[in-house]
Amino acid sequence: MKAVDFIVVGCGLASISFCEQLRQNNHSFIVFDDTSQKSSLVAAGLYNPVILKRFSEVWKAKEQLEIAQALYKRIEDHLNIKIDHELQLLRRFTSVEEQNMWFDASDKPKLEPYLSLTLLKNSNAHIDAPFGFGEVLKAGRLDTETLIDEYKSFLRAKGCLIDTTFSYNLLQFDESMVNYENLSTKNVVFAEGFGIKQNPYFKSLPLNGTKGEVLTIRSKALQLTQAIKSSVFVIPLGNDLYTVGSTYNWRDKSNRPTQTGEEELMTKLKSFVKCDFEVIEHLAGIRPTVKDRRPLVGRHPEFSNLYVLNGLGTRGVMIAPYVAQELYNYIQHNKPLDPEIDINRFTF
Predict the structure, then answer these.
(1) N or C end of the chain: which has fewer CB within 10 A?
(2) Do 199 and 219 fall into the same domain?
(3) CATH code where residue 261 lies
(4) What is the pLDDT of residues 88-133, one digit of tens each?
């Protein structure tokens, strides 16, 4: 038997953030991943501290940003890659009333650091924005595809990644240890996203799953260097490419892109983008969403070696490093979890 401190199941944003906690603290670990979950891979990667539909603060925005930016910088330095990109984010206004709502929100102490008081006029002939834009401060874009690809390559090179489906029925509990085939560990952390619905130990947690679809488009005429939030996000990727997203579907639980999703995104995009573009790629994934919009973190009530790190919803880029740190401190230092994320708030 090979002994490791942790087995981690999944290799998305939550898993990578937790693995960084383990690496920083010199723990041995093995990661299982079969690429069945696509939410991190299809994420647009845009992060910002404001809910732009109703101009309200993201939950624990300040703490999340500080922890996330520090973690992604460590990964960049360690792997010699660039994944965290500064990006100007503009909220397109559709009326004078929205402008007034923006300025009212900017007076709130928790939002003041994030909402610019300068109303920006539209200077792009291919964007319809007669009421201008508000600028969200401290926003950015994480290149999630590069992060996951490079981190998995790093894990493979270290012999820490097993590219196969994790079989729950192979878990064997032996006093204070858990055995899995030729591995023995003290802790198993499930960071599977929507895959948790197949997990016999945590599948009854109230994780609903929300399908999201995104497009990659090419437009030479558009010439955007900022991200724009209107009825959809438009996020510049460079080389005349842009991510457009996203849809929200609470019924369809497949990772298959749909014609309906593409048509919805195209219709919304054409409502304010007034130039030609072509669709290069169309992707879909299931976001791990929870009914109270808070993550699912904690220890199984019966099997004390098993933990869950899940439910990051639509804001995984910001939330993942925060909840990974919370879970690590809970396991290793017996620090109580934030009650808002602790799975003990539910009966399962």
Answers:
(1) N
(2) no
(3) 3.30.9.10
(4) 999 999 999 999 999 999 999 999 999 999 999 999 999 999 999 9
Task: Please indicate, yes or no, if residue 312 is contained in any of the structural domains.
Answer: yes
Last residue of one domain, picked from the residues 287, 316, 335: 287
Same domain, 198 and 266: no
- CATH number for the domain spanning 19: value is 3.50.50.60
- Within this chain, do residues 159 and 261 fall inside the same structural domain, yes or no? no
Q: Note the pLDDT tens digit of each residue in 245-298.
A: 999 999 999 989 999 999 999 999 999 999 999 999 999 999 999 989 999 999
Asked if residue 58 is part of any domain, the answer here is no
pLDDT reading at 1 higher than 90: no
Task: Quote the pTM value.
Answer: 0.94
In a domain, 97, yes or no: yes
- Are the C-beta atoms of 341 and 323 separated by less than 8 Å? yes
Residue with tokens 């919803």: 313
Has residue 77 been placed in a domain? Answer: no
CA distance 44 to 39: 10
What pLDDT, on the 0 to 100 scale, is given for residue 37?
65
Per-residue model confidence (pLDDT) at position 335? 98
pLDDT tens-digit map of 31-80: 999 987 666 656 679 999 999 988 999 999 999 999 999 999 999 999 99
Contact 144, 239 (CB under 8 A): no
217 and 282 part of one domain: yes
CB environment 189-205: b (16+ within 10 A), e (fewer): bbbbbbbbbebebbeeb
Range of the domain at 201: 2-44+145-205+292-345
Number of domains in the chain: 3
